Amino acid sequence: MPLKINGEPVDDALLDAEFSQIKAHFERQANVSCCERDDEFMGYAKDNIIARVLISQKALEVIDEPGSDVVDARLDTLKKEYGSDEEFYFKLGISEGQEDEIRGDIAGSIRVDSLISRIVGELPSPGKKQLQSHYEENLKDFMSPEEVRALHIFKSLSKAENRENIFAELRGIRSAARNGEDFMALVRKHSEKPEEEADLGWYKRGELMDEFELITFSMEINEISPVFATQWGMHLAKLTDRRPPKPIPFEKLQDEITARINAEHHDAKLNEYVAKLKDEAEITDVPEVDDSE
């Protein structure tokens, strides 16, 4: 296997799973298409795996093995999280009495948790002045999401042969709306949705279909959209209002800011420790040779 950490080989399947998870995260944020950033994501995956392996190795070295009672308690907690013992065994693909490997994983996890707690130390207890300062310095992170409100006219595409006719009809409705006809009157006359569903109310990104949001969030107030399609049918929308992002009041965020400061402390301490472990480690990452060439 190409990647080894202090002589310990990393299973390719583990690396591939980490890569897939990272890529999926960026795809959900629409920051990637196809494969143009695969090398970058594989780099992230290797960094993550290396950090986890180094921490696990160090935990085995410096943290005593937990007692069986501690492992049993953690195992019982896991079983409860799965809902029942039967569901636990089913999901893990084992039978009752075949828990030795699971118990070993739990013991290793407890040792890692203990080491991380030792590395991170006591979490900060920031006062109100520090919280306020953090809030002001990072105000862009504490904004309410942009919201819009829209009316829409809907036509179903259940009959594929009507697609062109529906498109032409909605184009005509759009022309009428742009020439001053009342949009709600057009809704009552033409939409296949009930009138009470024409007004979508206030919504943020991520609450409706991507196609609908891409159109409506790019519009100006009172603008009539082009005719556009989603998996459900064809639409015509009118943007009726917009709420721009604005700062969330500091008083509502003090717990969140405290958690954020604690997380930054946690990550900084852990990253510093992992960097030292990397400097001391023997890490080999040799590309596999294709013997067919």
Give me the count of strands: 7
Mind telling me which CATH architecture of the largest domain this is? Orthogonal Bundle
Can you give the mean pLDDT?
A: 91
How does the helix and strand content classify structurally?
A: alpha+beta
CATH H level, superfamily name of the largest domain: Porin chaperone SurA, peptide-binding domain
Question: What distinguishing features does this structure have?
Answer:
53% helix; Chitinase A, domain 3; 7 strands; single chain; 2 domains; four-stranded antiparallel sheet; 293 residues; elongated; three-stranded antiparallel sheet; Triger factor/SurA peptide-binding fold; alpha+beta
Overview of this protein structure:
With 293 residues, the chain is an alpha+beta fold. The protein folds into 2 domains: 3-124 and 258-285, Porin chaperone SurA, peptide-binding domain (Triger factor/SurA peptide-binding fold); 147-243, Chitinase A, domain 3, CATH 3.10.50.40. The protein is 53% helix and 13% strand. It is built from 10 helices and 7 strands. It has helices spanning 12-28, 38-62, 68-82, 85-92, 100-120, 128-137, 163-178, 183-190, 210-216, 254-280, and strands at residues 3-5, 8-9, 147-156, 199-204, 228-229, 233-243, 283-285. The strands form 2 sheets. A 4-stranded antiparallel sheet has the order 4-3-6-5, with helices on both faces. It has a 3-stranded antiparallel sheet with strand order 2-1-7, covered by helices on one side. The longest helix is centred in the last third of the chain and has 27 residues, at 254-280. The two termini are 19 Å apart.
